[in-house]
Each structure stands twice: as structure tokens, then as C-alpha cells.
Amino acid sequence: MDINALHNCFAATLDADINNRRRAELELKEANKAPGFINGCLDIVLEPQVSNGVKAAAAVYLKNRVSGHWMPYDKNATDKIDEGEKPVFRERIIPALIKVSPPIRPVLVSILNSIVSYDYPKQWPELLDVTLKLFQNNDVDSIRCGLTCLLEVARYYRWTSGESRVGLDGVIEIAFAGVLSVGNSLVNENNAAAGEMLRDVLKIYKMASYVSAEPHSLCFHSSDARLERSERSHGVWGGAPAARGRVPPPQKRLELELTLNSNNCP
């Protein structure tokens, strides 16, 4: 994957000239079929020299690419994400959450949510161990990332029942005492980051304490979530098509997308 060419495509999607934008969008549709595309997008998101606008464009496109094509409904789809690329991307997404700038972080959290819902625990059994190691670090960013990952693990078990839910007992036994300790240390803090971390602590307990619902209810919610992700996987950014009428400039569309991701961050 030519990262420079990919960078230029994302930069062109922000161009004021509609013809340049359309050309870049067509090039991205072709590029996203090539092996290395999602990791190339992540490279752009993490590169310090890249402008914030291009980073945002790459992050949003990446999010919609993962949500719609990590595990597509059509197993014979020609534009699904290459299986050989997934392990490397899974290894990179968690460190990326620690490094990425605050406006982009909710987008990467959404990506993590999609991958966990599809791959945990069978294709990603090491996720819990990686998460627990984050709590052993003394820096706030690592602990915050650990809470984010643990929340996604707990969220996965929310929609399980029977034998599939047995793994939750191990998660509670191993991790929850440490989570409680982190929560207690945050209670008297008055900054925004501490507030978000405390929110995640409460959500972790909330997700883990759900009582198993009837199987048909679980299937409905799971399918509904997958359908919602599928509906977001169409259009210019791989997301929902623009509403009829006046279309906002590309930079404004990006700002709106980032705001929506921040507000809907799981």
C-alpha cells in the first residue's frame, strides 16, 4: 500500500473542488480492496506530520470500512477486509488508542467496538491479557485505554447467555477489583478525563450485571446492531448517504461525523 498516495486521496476528499473530491472518492473505493489498506489508514491517523483534517478523514473512512466489511453478511463479498491483515490491525488498534489525539479517539473506540463484537474471544483470545497489562502501567493514558478495552469486553458479554457467558466470571474475578480501585481513585478528581474514566468504570459494572434475556431478544438486539453498522457502511465515507438537499462542505461533514462519534461513543 502506497501511504503517500493514500494520504493524497484523503487530502483530496477535503478539496473545495467537487470534481477533485469525486475523483478521490473513486480512488479510495478501489484502494480499500487492496491488502494493507486499513493499516495504511491507521498509519495516516497516527502520523504526527499529517494535518488534523486528513487524520479525521482517514479515521472516519477506516471506521466505516471496518464496521461494514470486517465480517460482511455476504461471505462471498469481493470487498471484504483481507483475513491476513486482521491480526496485525488488532495488535495496533489498542496502542493507537493511547497515542491518538482526543478528537479522533471516539472514532477508534467505535472501531474497537466493531472488532470485539465480531472477534472476541475466539479470534482475539489475548485481548483480556493485553487489557490487564494496561492497568499495570502508571500513566493515565494506558489506564484509560485499559478501561475502554475492558468496557468492550463487558459489553460483549451483555448479549450472551448460557455457556457463552461463562467467560464473564473469569473477567470479573481477574479484573474487577482493580477496576474498583481505579474508580475510587477518580471520585475526587474534577477534570474531564477523570470523569470519562469514571463513566467507563460504571459502565463496566453495568454491562457485567445485566441479567440474561430470552434468546429471541438477544438475537434481535444483536441483529439490530449489525444492521445499524451495515447501514452506516454505504455512501461517500462508507457511511450513511447524505440527505437530500444542500450538502455541507467536506470539512463540515467531517466535523459532524466526529461530533456524532463523540456523542455516541460506547
TrEMBL record:
It comes from the Eukaryota. GO terms for molecular function: small GTPase binding. GO terms for biological process: protein import into nucleus. The keyword Cytoplasm applies. Residues 24-99 form the Importin N-terminal domain. SUPFAM superfamilies: ARM repeat. Keywords: Cytoplasm, Nucleus, Protein transport, Transport. InterPro entries: ARM-like, ARM-type_fold, Importin-beta_N. It comes from Sugiyamaella lignohabitans. PROSITE patterns: IMPORTIN_B_NT (PS50166). SMART domains: IBN_N. This is Nmd5p. The gene is NMD5. GO terms for cellular component: cytosol; nuclear envelope. It holds the Pfam family IBN_N. Its main location: cytoplasm. It is found in: Cytoplasm; Nucleus. The keyword Disulfide bond does not apply.
